[in-house]
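Exercise 7.
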Amino acid sequence: MSIVKAYKFKLKTNAKFVAACCATLDICRELYNAALQERRDAYRINHLSINYYAQAIQLPQIKQVRQDVGEVHSQVLQDALRRIDKTFDAFFRRVKDGETPGYPRFKPASRFDTFTYPQSGFRLEGDRIHLSKVGSCRVRLSRPVEGTIKTCSIKREVDGWYVIFAVEENQSRFFPKTGATVGIDVGIENFATLSTGEVVENPEFLRESEAELKTAQRRVARRPSKRSNRRRKAVKLLQKKHQKIRRRRADFHHKTALKIVREFDAIAAEDLNVRGMVKNHHLAKSISDAGWSQFILILTSKAESAGRVVIKVNPSYTSQDCSQCGHRVRKALATREHQCDKCGYVTHRDHNSAIAIKGRAGLSGMVSNGKSREPRISTYSR
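Solution. The predicted structure, written as tokens, is:
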């Protein structure tokens, strides 16, 4: 079984390479916005729907008129059109599912930072990457690239330029079986509580950096002219602080997920509707700071790569139902202790929830004589 894995490395750029990348981004963004304008006008005026192939066939004609478009690799231009096609596919899916549609919008320069070689036009030789019609530069290869490189994306971030390789590799790195299973309850007081009783503390990276963010934001607000160099520098400083918070959070998620995947064969977690939960303005910042969705995604990815299984269960009443007898004990969010008035079981609220999650996923009876068996997937699990 083969899996696709992403490798991200920072580039050691020079002025010529950066100028070529910026020019490529500008052309791709202009093409993206023009394709969006064409689709929108075609539907408003003639009620016609234009797809990717109808727009891609126009590229040779555009190159004859625009010399700068011809200086960009053909597959990079095609990928820009595929991006707008995927955007409309997602828009129509949301309309069909009854969600808030969010019609595709035009991209300003500040929101278009990536261009991609989907098949060819790039070559990695040692620690040097060669990009067709852009140039070459060195790559900070922090680890070897294992597998076959399928696509190459160049991304502009606040602290420099990065290359992202999508690599296809064989799923061969399995962890040895431990015969252990676990239920995980994510929260705000503690980041995660395991059914084993182990507690992972919440680092609160955003809360910890609020004072620095406030100072950086005020510096931006004191620069009234949006086109001044001083405001541009202040905005860049603010972006770097937010980037540092994101990276610290992602590093914490990766390390925590790896520890759990190494110790347990099967993992049960709640299938939370985080988008709906952040509508609670009293808890929105804390929920976003914890990053539950990113953590579950990382945990699932690492589990699949290691031959483990993650089961998502219905989160309804996991903190209300007693994990021992199933009796529903109503309690407010501020009540942190679970006391069952039927069987007398007393424990921390989150620990009770983690045990209930494990039982709801059908993992309670997996361990027998130190050997594990395949989990019974509940009807709600995905």
